[in-house]
Design brief:
320 residues, 35% helix, alpha/beta, five-stranded parallel β-sheet
């Protein structure tokens, strides 16, 4: 009997097809809708492998139900949606998709910095709405990236890729990280700073840290108050790292100049969210890794990990 694989979102057939000959593959029929909890639990109960998304909660209840489960492969670098302790207890291997999305996410981060600083979204919306009536000497003026000071919170692979791009804009790069990156400092000229120093000195503060117990809620009213009134805040990590209400207050009161957000605490974000009411906020729907090549590469990592585990081989990017 073929082993059973359940995929929690509809994925491109080119990513799934290599599995169909050797495995019993079932897939949630919608791309734009998370699998309902009851369906997930029912499917997990007979699955040998789960191919999951960041929007799926793979908690202890899932592992208790999934008595045949051998592997959970998550289509993301992050894995805070999965109870790793429960997975270990049940002997289930968990994998993720690091590395392949580094450069694509760094591109998006830099694009969001430019979009926010130069008010590109606002200008584009006004043009389409017929609001562009005349050239104005101070119309749509924004902030320069060139020779600005960039502060990066979380100098992992993506943070370093963003910092390398910043060199092309002659930006001075500060970073704050759990561990010093001495090699990167000497190779690229990045400067380590404590969090307070980074916040007070940076023209752009970019969050690229993983969501952990230590980083959850690490940026709130006290931290935003330390930033320059001309500074721009960018979050391409996880919404839970910041206090969204505190960010709203800082932006509304002009304590900081603007913000660009690719992530929110609740996703999809509610349309009545206070941050969406502010003109100095640029928002995106969590598209950091959304290039065709990168998403297909991520899916290939998931697929290969599932096959390796089901065939008794060691998978790449193992978390448990």
């Amino acid at each position: 009997m073929k082993k059973r694989i359940y995929i929690t979102r509809r994925l491109p057939e080119e990513a799934v097809a290599p599995l169909r000959e050797h495995y019993d593959v079932h897939m949630w029929e919608h791309e734009g809708q998370s699998v309902p909890r009851d369906v997930l639990l029912e499917e997990a109960s007979s699955a040998h492998a789960l191919w999951t998304m960041l929007s799926d909660t793979i908690d202890r209840e899932v592992f208790e139900r999934a008595t045949n489960l051998e592997v959970v492969s998550n289509l993301a670098v992050g894995y805070n949606n999965i109870d790793l302790n429960a997975a270990k207890e049940k002997g289930v291997i968990v994998t993720n998709t690091p590395d392949v999305l580094t450069e694509t996410t760094a591109d998006l981060t830099f694009g969001l910095m430019m979009m926010t600083a130069r008010r590109l979204g606002e200008a584009e919306r006004d043009l389409r709405a017929g609001e562009w009536k005349s050239w104005l000497p101070m119309g749509y003026v924004g902030m320069d990236l060139y020779q600005a000071k960039l502060g990066i919170i979380g100098m992992g692979r993506i943070g370093e890729a963003v910092a390398r791009r910043a060199r092309g804009f002659d930006m001075d790069v500060l970073y704050h990280n759990r561990t010093r990156r001495h090699e990167s400092e000497s190779m690229y000229g990045f400067t380590y700073a404590d969090l307070d120093e980074l916040l007070t000195q940076s023209d752009f503060v970019v969050v690229l840290a993983p969501l952990t117990d230590e980083t959850r809620g690490m940026l709130g009213a006290e931290e935003f108050a330390k930033m320059k009134e001309t500074s721009i805040f960018i979050n391409v990590a996880r919404g839970e790292i910041i206090d969204e209400q505190a960010l709203y207050e800082a932006l509304k009161s002009k304590k900081i100049w603007g913000a660009g957000l690719d992530v929110f605490t609740k996703e999809p974000v509610d349309l009545d969210h206070p941050l969406l009411t502010l003109p100095n906020v640029t928002t995106l729907p969590h598209i950091g890794s959304a290039s065709i090549r990168t998403r297909l590469a991520m899916m290939a990592l998931n697929r290969d990990a599932i096959v390796n585990v089901l065939e008794g081989k060691e998978p790449k990017n193992r978390l448990t």
